[in-house]
Amino acid sequence: MEIESSxxxxxxxxxxxxxxxxxxxxxxxVLHSILVGLPIKCAVRTSAISTRWARLWIHAxxxxxxxxxxxxxxxxxxxxxxxxxxxxxxxxxxxxxxVALSPVGALGQDVLEWIAAALGRGAREVRVDLxxxxxxxxxDASLLQIPGGMFQVGNSLAVLSLxxxxxxxxxxxxxxxxxxxxxxLDRVDVTDxxxxxxxxxxRLLEFLSLRSCHxxxxxxxxxxxxxxxxxxxxxxxxxxxxxxxxLESFAFHGDILYSRDDYETExxxxxxxxxxxxxxxxxTPELRDAYxxxxxxxxxxxxxxxxxxxxxxxxxxxxRILTLCSKGLLHIDVERNCLELDVDTPNLEELQLLMxxxxxxxxxxxxxxxxxxxxxxxxxxxxxxxxxxxxxTEDACSGTATDEDEDIVLDEEISLDHxxxxxxxxxxxTTHELRLLRFVLRRAPVxxxxxxxxxxxxxxxxxxxQLLRIVQEHVSETRKAPWxxxxxxxxxxxxxDSLSPAHxxxxxxxxxxxx
Length: 515
Fold this sequence. Notes:
Blueprint: H1 7-18, H2 28-36, H3 40-45, H4 56-62, E1 64-66, H5 75-89, E2 96-100, H6 108-120, E3 125-129, E4 144-145, E5 159-163, E6 165-166, E7 182-186, H7 192-201, E8 207-211, E9 218-222, E10 228-232, E11 239-243, E12 249-253, E13 268-270, E14 289-293, H8 302-305, H9 308-316, E15 321-325, H10 326-338, E16 350-354, H11 360-373, E17 380-384, E18 421-425, H12 431-441, E19 449-453, H13 464-475, E20 487-491, H14 507-514
Parallel strand pairs: 1-2, 2-3, 3-5, 4-6, 5-7, 7-8, 8-10, 9-11, 10-12, 11-13, 12-14, 14-15, 15-16, 16-17, 17-18, 18-19, 19-20
Helix pairs in contact: 2-4, 10-11, 11-12
């Protein structure tokens, strides 16, 4: 038999339930995970909640010693604060240590002691970033010298990231690096031979990142488990050989690789067991995604680059996801006009093009690339237009059509029969942008969604309603096109909830912000 309580009793019961401290009833490991995500000052304040919470924050923060709470303090104060924090932790393990200091100055020895303390307490992840923003090249004299004995003893370290450090004293085969699954080196004075020796001993390594390592020239890396390789701003590099049969993700941003003296040598070579898909090179790993950008590193020089971009692209063109840049399109077009270049993209499902300008030549190169590749399985297209409008024509940023606003006609027409999604970022509705848009729309018979994301800054010419009407007018010009019913969205970045590209890290933006 069920008896319903009176409203007053129900209210009293609800009040008791709402006042119950359910948070304190959670297990310690759950509370630790919550406290680890808080700034250390907020975590310390939880000690006033109850006797149980009094020392809970100590054990939680001990599991993740994030040393970013010392901003604004002098070097001596920073050293004292961190030493006090480590002392409070006692013998508690430290899972993660992250240090970001620039410049490191007099704290160099202290940083080394913090690293040693973390390794001694079983740290799984150590990240030390001493890189000075705005300094793209190394000053070897100011690098933090890692002692030879730092990694001599075996430990639990799985993730190591070093910025503006020297590894010259670390001997090959250091036992403390053997368990690494991720290694990131930024402005580190590692040489070709040292890098090869370190990576060869890291048999569990799955991810390798090399940034602005100016001593690297002829790089040989490999590993049975290596799945991700990122090379950014290593401007002296001229040759890359990768022996990684399991490689899934490859990102290269910098001056295009080339061999100046040996024209028989290919700048990028994959060595491995190959893949099950049809590619031009049986040794190429079965890549999931590849990022190949030359933005921010000067103009194309045929005497220097000698078709190297095209060579690199051919090595990764079989990937399912590609991000390429407009300067790369120029490289490809130059070689196409000189030689019979054939770029096969049999597996391409997502393409992102990074455009640093949108003039007549850029639009023509855009169209030429599609004519050359004619990707048979392309489903998603992302075009990242320049953040700043450089169009100086009379109708710039207005969407007004002109007599020169003609559609592009290809020598050999293509049809993007699987393309269902198009997204353009930093779209303003200029004549060139609309011409580029129409080129794709006329060749996308099954398009389902078109997303145009305008720049975030205020003062973008025209409101979204006007821009939407302009786009709809251009879309409706070909009334018989099957894509006329595609859903069209015009929005700002903060309003955009549509699909995002697989690659959302843009290295040329990082370079611009650091200079």
